[in-house]
Design brief:
Length: 220
């Protein structure tokens, strides 16, 4: 068999037709998957998320529903310059394209300032340690009040004119004043009148010393 005849069997019209058909099927399958997924996922179609930050919750949820979106509160914060139930943050942000029915997660402004427990710093830490712990929580500190005692040692905490203890719940808006030692001590000198006792020996009837007759006499 000649070489030309050998390769001619492979390069037949029937074989080429099958190869072209298979290629066409693969191309159509790829196009079908691509456009099918885009149709199913609504690729390129989306709703632009509106800005709801700064709105009251009632207005924000009404706007979201008008755009075919849902809204869920996931956290709360506190900003005294904004009204209660105001939207402080949103996710996703303004301008993001999402599908219909997507949920916008928001943080709302609390109607009152949060309260936190006073940590264990009284008579247990220095001024710098207590200052760092309280400020990390978010408390504001006024200039400290110095009292007699060990220098820079915390002896108490005052909030709005009253002393607070460890574990007391205090509003984050209430400034605190730390009572710290000045390094000076109040030494009140008390005068005591000390009287040296003296003993008067009484003679017994037989003229001898009787130890039972000793009597303590306090001299004025």
């Amino acid at each position: 068999m000649k070489t030309k005849e050998f390769f001619g069997k492979f390069v037949s019209v029937y074989l080429l037709g099958n190869l072209l058909a298979m290629a066409l099927v693969i191309v159509l399958l790829c196009l079908g998957v691509k456009y099918g997924l885009e149709w199913y996922t609504h690729h390129g179609q989306g709703i632009v998320v509106p800005k709801v930050e700064g709105m009251t919750y009632a207005k924000a949820i009404a706007l979201a529903e008008q755009n075919g979106l849902n809204m869920m509160v996931t956290d709360s914060g506190y900003n005294k310059r904004l009204p209660a139930n105001c939207i402080l943050a949103q996710s996703p942000g303004q301008g993001t394209k999402v599908k219909e029915g997507h949920t916008i997660y928001v943080t709302v402004n609390s109607p009152s300032s949060p309260t936190f427990a006073i940590p264990d710093v009284v008579d247990n830490s220095s001024f710098r340690e207590a200052e760092a712990k309280l400020m990390a929580i978010g408390f504001k500190l006024l200039p400290p009040k110095y009292v007699a005692g060990e220098k820079d040692w915390v002896y108490g905490i005052i909030s709005r004119g009253r002393r607070v203890s460890t574990g007391d719940m205090v509003s984050i808006d209430s400034p605190l004043t730390l009572m710290i030692g000045s390094g000076m001590y109040d030494r009140e000198e008390e005068d005591f009148d000390y009287v040296e006792p003296s003993y008067q020996q009484f003679m017994s009837e037989d003229g001898g010393d009787d130890m039972d007759d000793f009597e303590e006499v306090m001299e004025p």
